[in-house]
Design a protein that fits this description.
The complex is a heterodimer of chains A (about 375) and B (about 375).
Chain A: H1 5-14, H2 16-48, E1 55-59, H3 73-80, E2 95-106, E3 113-121, H4 124-128, E4 133-137, E5 146-150, H5 151-156, E6 165-168, E7 171-180, E8 189-193, H6 194-200, E9 208-212, H7 216-228, E10 235-238, H8 239-244, H9 251-282, H10 284-293, H11 297-323, E11 330-335, E12 340-345, H12 350-376, H13 380-385
Parallel strand pairs in A: 3-8, 5-7
Antiparallel strand pairs in A: 1-9, 1-10, 2-3, 2-9, 4-7, 5-8, 6-7, 11-12
Helix pairs in contact in A: 1-11, 2-9, 2-11, 2-12, 9-12, 11-12
Chain B: H1 4-11, H2 15-43, E1 54-59, E2 66-67, H3 70-75, E3 80-88, E4 92-93, E5 104-107, H4 112-115, H5 123-131, E6 135-139, H6 140-146, E7 153-157, E8 166-173, E9 184-187, H7 188-194, E10 200-201, E11 203-208, H8 214-224, E12 232-236, H9 237-247, H10 251-280, H11 282-290, H12 295-326, H13 330-333, H14 345-371, H15 375-380
Parallel strand pairs in B: 5-9, 6-8
Antiparallel strand pairs in B: 1-11, 1-12, 2-10, 3-5, 3-11, 4-7, 6-9, 7-8
Helix pairs in contact in B: 1-12, 2-10, 2-12, 2-14, 10-14, 12-14
Classes of the chains: A alpha+beta (about 375), B alpha+beta (about 375).
C-alpha cells in the first residue's frame, strides 16, 4: 500500500527552510543549464532557419563556404542558361551572383574587432530570398557606395547604423537602410551591390551563385545538373543543407552547457542527499511507526523518493521561470565555419524546458535514492525506540 | 591551534553529511578551476617564448592578402631582423571533422626558423625540409597525434585555395615542453606555383632586434602602406591571437557569470548542511558557553569547521580539475583554443581561495546564530 502523497507535501512545509534551500539550489542549476542551452539553441536556429527550400548555393568544390569560394563570371553566364531555374515576372532567370567578403569591424560596446560578412548581391538576390525585409530607410542604389545593414549588426557594430558612413575595402559606404532576415544567418550581414563589392575589394570573380529552382521537387535534379556540368566544375547544394552543415558551430557551446550542467548537477545531488538524509533522520520515529502500521519497505522507499523528486521538480519549475528573461537576448559569436560573426538570440523552446525538468527530476531521483533506501531498511524496533 | 583537534573531530561527527558536503563543494570547485583553465588557455598564446620579439603584419580583413612586394619594403624598416611570409592554408586532412583540424601554414622555408627562433629542429631535418619543394615539418606533438613519421606523405585538400598539396614529412620541431601541439608548415613556393603565382601573402611574421622597437616598427610599417590599395595592420603576436578570441564574443562574460552562479549555488548547499549541523549542536553550544567559552570563540570554531570542510572539497576539486585537464579526451582537446588547457598554480590558488570563501559564507549565519545562543534556552531544549 502506498503512503499518501499528502504526507510528503506536509513534510516539505514543516521543514520549509531546508526544503527552500534545496529547491533554490536546484533552481539555479536548472537555470544555468537552460541559459547555456538556449545559447546553443539560438545559434542552431539561426543557421537552420536560413535558406529557402527552392534555393541552391553554387560554390567551388571543397571550398565549404562562400567566403573561401570563387566562381568565374563566365560560369555565372553559363549557369543562367541552364534549364530548371525559376524565372521572374520579366522572364529573367532567378540567379544571383554574389561576393561574400569578411571585414574586421569593432563592436560598439567593447571596441574589439570581429569579422563581419559583407555580401554583394545581384538584383535577383532579393527575389530569391523573400525572408529579407527592409525595415528602415530604403534600398541601396548601385554604383554610388550605398549599403544596407541588418538591424542586429547595426545595433552591435560601430558605424553600421542608419545614415552612418563606413569604410569597407577601398571606399566609403553610406548605410541607407536596415533589414531584418527573420533570425537567419543573413541577420549578421551587410548587403550591397555585387559589382560595387567587386570593385571595392578588387575581386574579379564572384564567390558564389545562388539560384532558385522551379520548385522544391526539381531542386535536387537542378543541383545535380549543375554539379555534373563539366564546363563549370562547381559544387551545388540546397541552401538549407549548406547552412545546416554550419550548425556544428554550436557544438562547443552545447558541450560546455552539458558539461557545466552535469558537474553542477552532481554537486546539487550531493546537496539534495544531505537534505534528504536529514529529513529521514528527523523522522526516524515516524518511519518506525509507519512500518509498525504495516506499510512495506517498498512503500517507505517510494514515498521518500517521491518527496525528493517533488523538491527537485519545484526547483526545476522555478529554474525555468528564472531563465525565461534570457530568452530573446541578442548576442553573437564567431561561426567557426566561416570565421565571421553570427548574430543570434538566446532561444528557450518548450523542448528545452521539458529536458530541464527531466534533468531536475533525475537530480531528485539520484539525490533521494540512497537516503530513501536508508529509511526503508531501518529496523522497526530501533526506529521506534529512537527519541 | 589547540582547538584544531576539536574542529577536526566535530567535522567528522556526521561523516556522511561532511562527505556529501565535501563532494558537492569539490564539484563546484572542479568546475570553477576548469572554467578558469579554459579562460587561461584562450590567452596563453601570449606566453609563447619569443612572442615578445615577434610582430604580425596583416590586412585589416583577414580574408584579404598583401602583395609579395611588401616583403622587401618591410625588411628595410629599422629594427626588423627577419621577415617570413606565412599564409593560413586551412585545408582538410582526411575528413572535415574536428579531430582532424590543425594549423597549416605555407611559408617561406628559408626564413621560417629565423623568425620562429624558438623552434628546435635538428640541422639535418631542417636542411631536408628547406631543400625539397614538397617537404613539410610538423610540431612533434602534432606528428605523434596523427602517427606521422619522417617520410610519410600527408595529403591536404584545399578549402581556401583550389590546391590539394601532397606533402612529405621531413622533420619535426619542438618548443617548450608544455606548449601546444604546433602546426604543419610547408613551402610557399609549392602552393604559389600551383595557384599560378598570385603573389599573395596573408601575414608577414617579423622578428625584431629588441622588444623595445615594437611600437616604432608597428607604426612605420602601417604608415608605409596606409594609402595603398592594401593597407596593413601590424600588431604583436599576442594581440593577433587575442583578436581571434575576442571574435568568440562575450565568452568571458558567459564563463564568469556561470562561475559566479556555481559558487553561489554551492555556497547555498554547504550553508544548508552547516545550518543542519549547527541546529543539532544547539544544546552543546550552550554547554560550551556555560563552561566559559566566549561567543567569539564559538563563532570561530563553527566557522573554522565549515572552512575546513570547504577546503577539503576545494583541494579535491582542484586536484580533479588538474587531473581532468591533463586527461582530457583528445577529441575535446581538438576544439579550437583548448589545446593549451592546463590548471596553473594561479588557478589552483584562486580555486582554493574560492573554497575558503564558500566555507566562510556557508558557515557565517549558523556560526553567528550559535554565538548568540542564550545559555538558558540552549540548556532548556530537549534534543
Amino acid at each position: 500500500m502506498a503512503i499518501p502523497l499528502k504526507y510528503n507535501l506536509r513534510n516539505l512545509v514543516v521543514r520549509r527552510v531546508s526544503t527552500l534551500m534545496t529547491v533554490f539550489t536546484i533552481a539555479l542549476v536548472v537555470a544555468v543549464f537552460i541559459a547555456i542551452m538556449a545559447l546553443a539553441n539560438g545559434l542552431n536556429a539561426a543557421l537552420v532557419s536560413t535558406g529557402t527550400p527552392e534555393n541552391i548555393v553554387i560554390i567551388r568544390p571543397s571550398s565549404q563556404t562562400e567566403v573561401n569560394s570563387q566562381v568565374t563570371r563566365e560560369a555565372f553566364q553559363l549557369i543562367q542558361t541552364l534549364p530548371g531555374i525559376a524565372r521572374d515576372t520579366q522572364g529573367k532567370p532567378m540567379a544571383s551572383a554574389e561576393i561574400a567578403v569578411l571585414v574586421n569591424l569593432p563592436r560598439r560596446d567593447t571596441g574589439e574587432a570581429t569579422n563581419v560578412t559583407v555580401r554583394g548581391v545581384s538584383d535577383a538576390g532579393f527575389a530569391i530570398r523573400p525572408l529579407i525585409k527592409l525595415v528602415e530607410g530604403r534600398m541601396f542604389r548601385p554604383g554610388i557606395g550605398e549599403a544596407i545593414a541588418s538591424r542586429k549588426i547595426a545595433e552591435r557594430f560601430s558605424s553600421t547604423g542608419m545614415g552612418e558612413v563606413i569604410r569597407l575595402g577601398r571606399r566609403d559606404w553610406t548605410v541607407v537602410g536596415l533589414f531584418e532576415a527573420g533570425g537567419s544567418a543573413f541577420d549578421s550581414e551587410i548587403w550591397t551591390e555585387v559589382n560595387d563589392v567587386a570593385d571595392a575589394f578588387e575581386r574579379t570573380n564572384y564567390s558564389s551563385v545562388m539560384v532558385r529552382a522551379d520548385s522544391v521537387a526539381t531542386r535536387d535534379s537542378l543541383a545535380n545538373r549543375i554539379a555534373a556540368e563539366q564546363r563549370l566544375n562547381l559544387e551545388a547544394k540546397p541552401e538549407t543543407v549548406y547552412y545546416e552543415e554550419q550548425t556544428s558551430a554550436g557544438a562547443p557551446i552545447r558541450g560546455l552547457g552539458i558539461f557545466v550542467a552535469v558537474v553542477m548537477g552532481f554537486g546539487a545531488c550531493f546537496g539534495g542527499m544531505n537534505t534528504m538524509y536529514a529529513a529521514v533522520a528527523v523522522r526516524t520515529r515516524e518511519i518506525g511507526m509507519l512500518r509498525a502500521l504495516g506499510f512495506s519497505k517498498g512503500s517507505i522507499m517510494t514515498s521518500f523518493v517521491i518527496e525528493s523528486v517533488i523538491i527537485a521538480l519545484i526547483g526545476g519549475v522555478i529554474g525555468c521561470v528564472l531563465a525565461i528573461p534570457v530568452n530573446g537576448i541578442a548576442t553573437g559569436t564567431m561561426n567557426f565555419r566561416t570565421f565571421s560573426e553570427l548574430a543570434f538570440s538566446f532561444r528557450i523552446t518548450p523542448d528545452l524546458m521539458a529536458s530541464a525538468l527531466i534533468f531536475a527530476a533525475v537530480m531528485g531521483l539520484l539525490g533521494g535514492l540512497l537516503p530513501s533506501r536508508f529509511a526503508a531498511r531501518m529496523p522497526i524496533t530501533k526506529a521506534l525506540r529512537e527519541l | 591551534m589547540k582547538y584544531l583537534r576539536l574542529i577536526v573531530k566535530n567535522a567528522g561527527r556526521n561523516k556522511r553529511r561532511s562527505v556529501l558536503t565535501i563532494l558537492s563543494i569539490s564539484a563546484a570547485i572542479f568546475l570553477l578551476a576548469f572554467m578558469q583553465a579554459i579562460m587561461n588557455s584562450f590567452s596563453s598564446a601570449s606566453e609563447l617564448t619569443g612572442a615578445e620579439l615577434r610582430l604580425i603584419v596583416r590586412r585589416n580583413s583577414l580574408a584579404d592578402a598583401m602583395p609579395e612586394s611588401y616583403r622587401e619594403k618591410i625588411a628595410q624598416v629599422p629594427g626588423v631582423v627577419a621577415i617570413c611570409p606565412a599564409n593560413w592554408f586551412g585545408g582538410t586532412y582526411k575528413e572535415d571533422k574536428p579531430q582532424y583540424y590543425f594549423a597549416q601554414f605555407y611559408v617561406d622555408a628559408k626564413t621560417l626558423f629565423d623568425v620562429q627562433s624558438e623552434y628546435q629542429i635538428s640541422p639535418a631535418e631542417k636542411q631536408a625540409f628547406q631543400q625539397e619543394r614538397t617537404a613539410a615539418i610538423a610540431g612533434r606533438k602534432l606528428a605523434a597525434k596523427y602517427g606521422w613519421k619522417i617520410g610519410d606523405v600527408i595529403e591536404l585538400k584545399g578549402t581556401f585555395h583550389p590546391v590539394n598539396p601532397q606533402l612529405t614529412l621531413r622533420g619535426t620541431y619542438t618548443t617548450a615542453a608544455d606548449a601546444p601541439e604546433g602546426g604543419l608548415f610547408f613551402h610557399r613556393e609549392y602552393v604559389e606555383e600551383a595557384l599560378g603565382r598570385p603573389g599573395e601573402v596573408g601575414t608577414f611574421r617579423i622578428k625584431l632586434d629588441s622588444p623595445a622597437s615594437a611600437p616604432g616598427v608597428m607604426d612605420a610599417v602601417d604608415a608605409m602602406f596606409k594609402s595603398s590599395a592594401a593597407p596593413t595592420k601590424t600588431e604583436t603576436e599576442a594581440s593577433f591571437q587575442a583578436s581571434f578570441v575576442s571574435m568568440l564574443g562575450n565568452v568571458k562574460g558567459l564563463i564568469t557569470s556561470v562561475g559566479l552562479v556555481v559558487v553561489f549555488t554551492i555556497s547555498l548547499i554547504a550553508a544548508n548542511a552547516m545550518a543542519m549541523t549547527a541546529r543539532e549542536r544547539f544544546t552543546e553550544v550552550a554547554v560550551m558557553k556555560a563552561l566559559g567559552f566566549r561567543p567569539g570563540l564559538v563563532l570561530g570554531l563553527i566557522l573554522s569547521e565549515s572552512v575546513f570542510i570547504a577546503l577539503i572539497g576545494g583541494v579535491l576539486g582542484t586536484l580533479g580539475a588538474r587531473l581532468g585537464a591533463s586527461a582530457l579526451p583528445s577529441a575535446l582537446r581538438d576544439m579550437i583554443f583548448l589545446q593549451n588547457l592546463r590548471v596553473s598554480p594561479t588557478v589552483i590558488a584562486l580555486s582554493l581561495g574560492a573554497s575558503i570563501l564558500i566555507g566562510l559564507c556557508s558557515g557565517g549565519i549558523p556560526a553567528w546564530s550559535a554565538a548568540r545562543v542564550r545559555i538558558v534556552d540552549g540548556l532548556r531544549r530537549v534534543a
